[in-house]
Amino acid sequence: MAQLQALIFDVDGTLADTERDGHRVAFNQAFAEAGLDWEWTVDGYRSLLEVAGGKERIRFYRERYTPDWYPTEDLFTWSAALHQAKTRYYRELLVQGKIPLRPGVRRLIQEARAAGLRLAIATTSAIENVIPLLEVTLGPESPQWFEVIAAGDMVPAKKPAPDVYLHVLEAMKLLPQTCLAIEDSYQGLQAALQANLTTVVTVNPYTQQHDFSQASLVVDCLGEPDKPFQVLMGGTYQATWFDLEVANALLEVAAKGA
Ligand code: XBP
Ligand code: MG
Questions:
Q1: Would the pLDDT of 1 be above 70?
Q2: What is the pLDDT of residue 2?
Q3: Among 57, 60, 87, 204, which is best to mutate for testing ligand 1, by the most ligand atoms less than 8 A from CB?
Q4: Centre of ligand 2 from the C-alpha of residue 11, in Å
Q5: Shortest-distance ligand to the CA of residue 202
Q6: Is the pLDDT of residue 236 over 90?
Q7: Residue 77: domain span
Q8: Are residues 163 and 206 in the same domain?
Q9: Which one in 64, 94, 124, 164 has a CA-CA gap of 20 to 30 Å to 51?
Q10: Going by DSSP bridges, is the β-strand pair 231-233/217-219 parallel, antiparallel, or unpaired?
Q11: 76, 183: one domain
């Protein structure tokens, strides 16, 4: 039987609800600074999230909604500069402590560290966003707890491509059968599944309608002893919060089904 050796976390929507009050707000601040009259609303941002990656999302939006408008620079230089401003604003929001961890995230990470499990991050977001989020929420030394932080443009293709997860597995020299991925979106789930990872999904308001039928477990959050999770799909073996026992049980079931 494959024993759990590592947890691989997605960031946006999984570690913290970063999108609505973080990334989205920062994009709008960057647009205003650049003199663009674009406004990404709370609702409108839902469909924009289908485009993974901030630079990609900016270029997609221009092409879809202002196809006759072109920046003076080429599109890649322009979107990279706009994205840099967005990253600056996003980091400001993070440092202000406006984006807390989701329920159960700190507890599960602590439990995993105490059990000697290995930890990694697999995200589409830029590394400049990930490090301050970890530092502000889990403490200044916490980025070192993660053996690999695979982020942003480190791999050729962003989620739903599996590249970022394959990169983590390769860097850690681990078989997917010994790892568990934690995701929040359809695109993230597809990326993890294509890397053959057993995946738990914690939904959020932007992703709760996504198709998660291929996940091993779908819950509203990881839960806490005094704040049970709500199970949306899958079995939890009487558990009311997600812990390493549930994680191991899910791997065992996946191994039997393989
Ligand atoms: C989510 C994303 C990101 C963020 C924006 O990534 O799609 O693009 O919305 O981040 P994940 P950047 O769920 O994989 O963490 O602006 O840095 O791209
Ligand atoms: Mg996500």
A1: no
A2: 75
A3: 57
A4: 6
A5: 2
A6: no
A7: 19-95
A8: yes
A9: 94
A10: antiparallel
A11: no
Per-residue pLDDT tens over the stretch 29-46: 999 999 999 999 999 999
Distance, in Å, from the CA atom of 104 to the CA atom of 223, rounded to the nearest integer, reads 5
Alpha helices in the chain (DSSP H): 24-33, 44-48, 54-65, 75-95, 105-114, 127-138, 163-172, 186-194, 244-257
**How much is the pTM?**
0.95
**Residues listed for the chain:** 258
- 149 within ligand 1 shell (Cβ under 6 A): no
Residues 160 and 125 in one domain: yes
Q: What is the CATH number for 64?
A: 1.10.150.240
Does 59 contact ligand 1 (Cβ within 6 A)? Answer: no
Are 171 and 181 members of one domain?
Answer: yes
CA nearest neighbour of 179 among 199, 150, 203, 164: 199
Query: Is any atom of ligand 1 closer than 6 Å to the C-beta of 103?
Result: no
Amino acid at site 209: Q
Q: How many angstroms separate the CA atoms of 17 and 42, rounded?
A: 13
Per-residue pLDDT band at 258 (split at 50, 70, 90) = low
- Tell the burial category of 34 from Cβ atoms under 10 Å away from its Cβ (0-12, 13-18, 19+): middle
Query: What residue has token string 């979107």?
Result: 79
Give the number of the atom of ligand 1 that is nearest the alpha carbon of residue 86.
16
- pLDDT tens digit sequence for 89-135: 999 999 998 899 999 999 999 999 999 999 999 999 999 999 999 99
